[in-house]
Design goal:
Structural class: mainly alpha
Radius of gyration: 19 Å
Mean pLDDT: 88
Number of domains: 1
Distance between the termini: 35 Å
Order of helices and strands: HHH
Number of strands: 0
Length: about 80
């Protein structure tokens, strides 16, 4: 059976690497677990930013502010 993960190397300045390791230790996680959680948060923030971008664009086009539910309906109705 093949690997279920891939090795990814990241280069950090020494002080940031030490802080990262300290945070992982404080949270009782290994560095990989902490990275996965951090990346999930980053993705959520990007999705939220995209929602706000769409909301602003639709507001300009329609002359009114759309709710998150309305945007989801419009975005996903043709999918």
């Amino acid at each position: 059976m093949g690997r279920t993960s891939r090795l990814l190397a990241v280069s950090l300045p020494p002080d940031l690497a030490e802080e990262y390791e300290a945070v992982a230790k404080e949270l009782g996680k290994n560095k990989s677990e902490l990275f996965r959680e951090m990346f999930a948060v980053y993705q959520a923030v990007r999705e939220e930013q995209e929602l706000y971008r769409l909301q602003r664009r639709m507001t300009r086009q329609a002359g009114r502010r759309f709710t998150e539910k309305e945007i989801e309906k419009i975005v996903f109705e043709d999918r």
